[in-house]
Amino acid sequence: MRIFAFETYEEMSRHAAAVMAAEVRENPRTVLGLATGSTPLGMYAELGRMCRAGEISFRDVTTVNLDEYYGLTPDHEMSYRYFMEKNFFSLIDILPENTHLPDGTAPSPAMECQRYDRLIDSVGGIGMQLLGIGHDGHIGFNEPADQFVPGTNYVRLTEDTIRANARFFASEADVPRYALTTGIRAIMQAKKILMVVNGAAKAEILCRALFGPITPQVPASILLLHPNVTVCGEAPAMAMIREKFPTAIEK
Ligand code: F6R
Protein backbone atom coordinates (compact mmCIF):
# COMPACT_ATOMS: atom_id res chain seq x y z
CA MET A 1 0.00 0.00 0.00
CA ARG A 2 1.28 3.46 -0.87
CA ILE A 3 0.01 6.33 1.26
CA PHE A 4 0.54 9.93 0.15
CA ALA A 5 -0.36 13.04 2.13
CA PHE A 6 -0.93 16.48 0.61
CA GLU A 7 -1.24 19.87 2.25
CA THR A 8 -4.25 20.93 0.21
CA TYR A 9 -7.31 19.37 -1.39
CA GLU A 10 -6.15 20.74 -4.77
CA GLU A 11 -2.77 19.02 -4.51
CA MET A 12 -4.42 15.79 -3.49
CA SER A 13 -6.84 16.02 -6.41
CA ARG A 14 -4.06 16.73 -8.90
CA HIS A 15 -2.02 13.77 -7.69
CA ALA A 16 -5.00 11.39 -7.76
CA ALA A 17 -5.87 12.62 -11.26
CA ALA A 18 -2.29 11.94 -12.36
CA VAL A 19 -2.51 8.37 -11.00
CA MET A 20 -5.73 7.72 -12.92
CA ALA A 21 -4.39 9.43 -16.04
CA ALA A 22 -1.33 7.16 -15.94
CA GLU A 23 -3.63 4.12 -15.83
CA VAL A 24 -5.59 5.39 -18.85
CA ARG A 25 -2.43 6.17 -20.83
CA GLU A 26 -0.93 2.77 -20.04
CA ASN A 27 -4.16 0.88 -20.77
CA PRO A 28 -6.34 3.01 -23.07
CA ARG A 29 -9.08 0.35 -22.94
CA THR A 30 -9.04 0.12 -19.16
CA VAL A 31 -12.16 -0.30 -17.05
CA LEU A 32 -12.41 2.36 -14.35
CA GLY A 33 -14.50 1.71 -11.27
CA LEU A 34 -15.80 5.13 -10.23
CA ALA A 35 -17.22 6.74 -7.11
CA THR A 36 -19.45 9.72 -6.43
CA GLY A 37 -19.37 11.89 -3.28
CA SER A 38 -17.64 15.17 -2.68
CA THR A 39 -14.06 13.89 -2.40
CA PRO A 40 -13.41 13.02 -6.07
CA LEU A 41 -14.86 16.27 -7.45
CA GLY A 42 -11.48 18.03 -7.69
CA MET A 43 -9.91 15.01 -9.31
CA TYR A 44 -12.72 14.73 -11.88
CA ALA A 45 -12.36 18.44 -12.69
CA GLU A 46 -8.61 18.01 -13.19
CA LEU A 47 -9.11 14.99 -15.47
CA GLY A 48 -11.64 17.08 -17.42
CA ARG A 49 -9.04 19.81 -17.81
CA MET A 50 -6.44 17.31 -18.98
CA CYS A 51 -8.88 15.88 -21.51
CA ARG A 52 -9.77 19.34 -22.90
CA ALA A 53 -6.06 20.14 -23.14
CA GLY A 54 -5.53 16.96 -25.20
CA GLU A 55 -3.31 15.41 -22.54
CA ILE A 56 -5.51 12.32 -22.17
CA SER A 57 -8.42 10.58 -23.89
CA PHE A 58 -11.18 8.38 -22.46
CA ARG A 59 -12.47 7.37 -25.90
CA ASP A 60 -11.75 3.66 -25.37
CA VAL A 61 -12.31 3.59 -21.60
CA THR A 62 -15.25 1.83 -19.95
CA THR A 63 -16.55 2.89 -16.54
CA VAL A 64 -18.58 1.04 -13.93
CA ASN A 65 -19.75 3.05 -10.96
CA LEU A 66 -19.84 1.65 -7.49
CA ASP A 67 -23.38 2.46 -6.55
CA GLU A 68 -26.74 4.11 -7.13
CA TYR A 69 -29.66 5.08 -4.92
CA TYR A 70 -32.61 2.76 -5.33
CA GLY A 71 -35.75 4.50 -6.50
CA LEU A 72 -34.19 7.52 -8.23
CA THR A 73 -34.48 7.89 -12.00
CA PRO A 74 -31.27 8.68 -13.95
CA ASP A 75 -32.45 12.26 -14.58
CA HIS A 76 -33.17 12.88 -10.89
CA GLU A 77 -30.73 15.56 -9.72
CA MET A 78 -29.68 13.45 -6.74
CA SER A 79 -29.12 10.23 -8.67
CA TYR A 80 -25.56 9.11 -9.06
CA ARG A 81 -26.05 8.87 -12.83
CA TYR A 82 -26.91 12.57 -12.86
CA PHE A 83 -23.92 13.32 -10.62
CA MET A 84 -21.54 11.45 -12.91
CA GLU A 85 -22.87 13.10 -16.07
CA LYS A 86 -22.58 16.55 -14.52
CA ASN A 87 -19.26 16.19 -12.72
CA PHE A 88 -17.27 13.88 -14.96
CA PHE A 89 -18.73 12.31 -18.10
CA SER A 90 -19.69 15.67 -19.63
CA LEU A 91 -16.11 16.91 -19.03
CA ILE A 92 -14.38 14.10 -20.92
CA ASP A 93 -14.59 12.38 -24.30
CA ILE A 94 -15.97 9.07 -23.02
CA LEU A 95 -18.62 7.33 -25.14
CA PRO A 96 -21.96 7.37 -23.26
CA GLU A 97 -22.55 3.69 -24.02
CA ASN A 98 -19.34 2.81 -22.18
CA THR A 99 -20.52 4.31 -18.89
CA HIS A 100 -22.38 2.05 -16.47
CA LEU A 101 -24.12 2.41 -13.13
CA PRO A 102 -26.54 0.13 -11.32
CA ASP A 103 -30.10 0.91 -12.44
CA GLY A 104 -31.94 2.45 -9.49
CA THR A 105 -35.26 2.02 -11.28
CA ALA A 106 -34.98 -1.73 -11.94
CA PRO A 107 -38.18 -3.41 -10.73
CA SER A 108 -36.28 -6.24 -9.06
CA PRO A 109 -33.23 -5.15 -7.03
CA ALA A 110 -32.08 -8.77 -6.78
CA MET A 111 -32.07 -9.23 -10.56
CA GLU A 112 -30.37 -5.88 -11.05
CA CYS A 113 -27.59 -6.97 -8.67
CA GLN A 114 -27.06 -10.11 -10.75
CA ARG A 115 -27.11 -8.13 -13.99
CA TYR A 116 -24.52 -5.70 -12.66
CA ASP A 117 -22.15 -8.46 -11.53
CA ARG A 118 -22.44 -10.08 -14.97
CA LEU A 119 -21.77 -6.72 -16.59
CA ILE A 120 -18.60 -6.21 -14.55
CA ASP A 121 -17.46 -9.73 -15.54
CA SER A 122 -18.33 -9.14 -19.19
CA VAL A 123 -16.11 -6.05 -19.42
CA GLY A 124 -13.24 -8.10 -17.97
CA GLY A 125 -13.32 -6.79 -14.38
CA ILE A 126 -12.02 -3.48 -13.13
CA GLY A 127 -8.58 -2.12 -14.01
CA MET A 128 -8.53 0.71 -11.49
CA GLN A 129 -11.12 1.22 -8.78
CA LEU A 130 -11.54 4.70 -7.33
CA LEU A 131 -12.84 4.79 -3.75
CA GLY A 132 -13.80 7.35 -1.16
CA ILE A 133 -14.43 6.28 2.42
CA GLY A 134 -17.51 6.95 4.55
CA HIS A 135 -17.35 8.21 8.13
CA ASP A 136 -18.27 4.70 9.25
CA GLY A 137 -15.66 3.06 7.02
CA HIS A 138 -18.00 2.15 4.18
CA ILE A 139 -16.76 1.72 0.62
CA GLY A 140 -19.38 2.01 -2.07
CA PHE A 141 -22.47 1.52 0.07
CA ASN A 142 -20.96 -1.52 1.78
CA GLU A 143 -21.88 -0.51 5.30
CA PRO A 144 -20.49 -1.89 8.60
CA ALA A 145 -21.96 -5.37 9.05
CA ASP A 146 -21.28 -8.80 10.49
CA GLN A 147 -19.97 -10.11 7.15
CA PHE A 148 -18.39 -8.79 4.00
CA VAL A 149 -20.89 -9.15 1.14
CA PRO A 150 -19.14 -10.36 -2.03
CA GLY A 151 -21.57 -9.55 -4.85
CA THR A 152 -23.50 -6.46 -5.89
CA ASN A 153 -26.13 -6.01 -3.22
CA TYR A 154 -29.24 -4.11 -2.27
CA VAL A 155 -28.64 -2.34 1.02
CA ARG A 156 -30.46 -0.28 3.57
CA LEU A 157 -28.30 2.76 4.31
CA THR A 158 -27.21 3.30 7.90
CA GLU A 159 -28.43 6.33 9.82
CA ASP A 160 -24.85 7.65 9.75
CA THR A 161 -24.74 7.52 5.94
CA ILE A 162 -28.22 9.03 5.63
CA ARG A 163 -27.15 11.92 7.88
CA ALA A 164 -23.85 12.38 5.97
CA ASN A 165 -25.61 12.39 2.59
CA ALA A 166 -28.44 14.70 3.71
CA ARG A 167 -26.16 17.66 2.84
CA PHE A 168 -26.87 16.94 -0.85
CA PHE A 169 -30.69 16.81 -0.39
CA ALA A 170 -33.32 19.37 0.63
CA SER A 171 -33.82 17.47 3.90
CA GLU A 172 -32.76 14.26 5.61
CA ALA A 173 -36.21 12.81 4.92
CA ASP A 174 -35.51 13.07 1.17
CA VAL A 175 -32.44 10.82 1.27
CA PRO A 176 -33.35 7.44 -0.23
CA ARG A 177 -33.13 4.66 2.35
CA TYR A 178 -31.95 1.96 -0.07
CA ALA A 179 -29.19 1.65 -2.62
CA LEU A 180 -27.54 -0.81 -4.97
CA THR A 181 -23.83 -1.24 -4.44
CA THR A 182 -21.02 -3.21 -5.97
CA GLY A 183 -19.87 -5.77 -3.43
CA ILE A 184 -16.46 -6.46 -1.96
CA ARG A 185 -15.51 -9.07 -4.58
CA ALA A 186 -15.52 -6.73 -7.60
CA ILE A 187 -13.65 -4.09 -5.59
CA MET A 188 -11.02 -6.55 -4.35
CA GLN A 189 -10.62 -8.06 -7.83
CA ALA A 190 -9.79 -4.66 -9.32
CA LYS A 191 -6.16 -4.72 -10.45
CA LYS A 192 -5.46 -1.40 -8.73
CA ILE A 193 -7.26 0.64 -6.07
CA LEU A 194 -7.03 4.41 -5.76
CA MET A 195 -8.52 5.92 -2.61
CA VAL A 196 -9.04 9.65 -2.09
CA VAL A 197 -9.85 11.11 1.31
CA ASN A 198 -10.09 14.57 2.80
CA GLY A 199 -11.31 16.29 5.95
CA ALA A 200 -10.32 15.89 9.61
CA ALA A 201 -13.55 13.99 10.27
CA LYS A 202 -12.13 11.02 8.33
CA ALA A 203 -8.78 10.85 10.21
CA GLU A 204 -9.75 8.19 12.73
CA ILE A 205 -11.69 5.91 10.40
CA LEU A 206 -8.97 6.14 7.75
CA CYS A 207 -6.37 5.04 10.28
CA ARG A 208 -8.56 2.13 11.41
CA ALA A 209 -9.19 1.14 7.79
CA LEU A 210 -5.57 1.22 6.66
CA PHE A 211 -3.97 -0.28 9.76
CA GLY A 212 -6.58 -2.80 10.83
CA PRO A 213 -7.82 -4.96 12.30
CA ILE A 214 -9.58 -6.26 9.20
CA THR A 215 -13.24 -6.43 10.08
CA PRO A 216 -16.57 -6.11 8.25
CA GLN A 217 -17.41 -3.48 10.88
CA VAL A 218 -14.92 -1.26 9.00
CA PRO A 219 -15.54 -2.41 5.42
CA ALA A 220 -12.58 -0.44 4.00
CA SER A 221 -10.22 -2.48 6.21
CA ILE A 222 -10.47 -5.32 3.64
CA LEU A 223 -8.19 -3.19 1.42
CA LEU A 224 -5.29 -4.27 3.64
CA LEU A 225 -5.44 -7.56 1.72
CA HIS A 226 -5.26 -5.90 -1.70
CA PRO A 227 -1.84 -5.98 -3.38
CA ASN A 228 -2.01 -2.61 -5.15
CA VAL A 229 -3.59 0.26 -3.22
CA THR A 230 -2.68 3.94 -3.52
CA VAL A 231 -4.18 6.32 -0.96
CA CYS A 232 -4.12 10.08 -1.61
CA GLY A 233 -5.10 12.05 1.46
CA GLU A 234 -5.36 15.68 2.36
CA ALA A 235 -3.30 16.46 5.50
CA PRO A 236 -6.20 16.76 8.02
CA ALA A 237 -7.47 13.29 7.04
CA MET A 238 -3.95 11.93 7.57
CA ALA A 239 -3.55 13.39 11.07
CA MET A 240 -3.98 10.14 13.02
CA ILE A 241 -1.84 8.09 10.64
CA ARG A 242 0.81 10.78 10.83
CA GLU A 243 0.73 10.55 14.61
CA LYS A 244 0.64 6.74 14.98
CA PHE A 245 2.42 5.47 11.87
CA PRO A 246 4.48 8.42 10.57
CA THR A 247 6.84 6.29 8.49
CA ALA A 248 3.93 4.82 6.49
CA ILE A 249 3.36 8.13 4.68
CA GLU A 250 5.43 8.75 1.56
CA LYS A 251 5.08 12.49 1.14
C1 F6R B 1 -20.02 7.04 -3.49
C2 F6R B 1 -19.43 6.07 -2.58
C3 F6R B 1 -19.24 6.38 -1.13
C4 F6R B 1 -18.37 7.62 -0.91
C5 F6R B 1 -18.21 7.90 0.59
C6 F6R B 1 -17.44 9.18 0.82
O1 F6R B 1 -20.15 6.49 -4.77
O2 F6R B 1 -19.13 5.02 -3.01
O3 F6R B 1 -18.66 5.27 -0.51
O4 F6R B 1 -17.13 7.43 -1.50
O5 F6R B 1 -19.46 8.01 1.19
O6 F6R B 1 -18.19 10.25 0.38
P1 F6R B 1 -17.61 11.75 0.36
O7 F6R B 1 -16.55 11.76 -0.68
O8 F6R B 1 -18.77 12.61 -0.03
O9 F6R B 1 -17.09 12.00 1.73
What features would you describe in this structure?
The chain has 251 residues and is an alpha/beta fold. The chain has helices at 9-26, 41-52, 80-87, 109-122, 159-165, 184-189, 203-211, 239-244, and strands at residues 2-6, 31-34, 62-65, 67-69, 99-100, 128-131, 153-156, 178-181, 192-197, 229-234. A 7-stranded parallel sheet has the order 1-10-9-6-2-3-5. Strands 4-8-7 form a 3-stranded antiparallel sheet. Helix 1 packs across helix 2. The protein is globular and about 50 Å long. The model has no long low-confidence stretch (mean pLDDT 97). Bound molecules: fructose -6-phosphate. Fructose -6-phosphate (F6R) is lined by residues 35-39, 66-67, 132-134, 138-140. Fructose -6-phosphate (F6R) binds at residues 35-39, 66-67, 132-134, 138-140.
How do the helices and strands line up, and which of them pair or pack?
Blueprint: E1 2-6, H1 9-26, E2 31-34, H2 41-52, E3 62-65, E4 67-69, H3 80-87, E5 99-100, H4 109-122, E6 128-131, E7 153-156, H5 159-165, E8 178-181, H6 184-189, E9 192-197, H7 203-211, E10 229-234, H8 239-244
Parallel strand pairs: 1-10, 2-3, 2-6, 3-5, 6-9, 9-10
Antiparallel strand pairs: 4-8, 7-8
The chain binds fructose -6-phosphate (F6R).
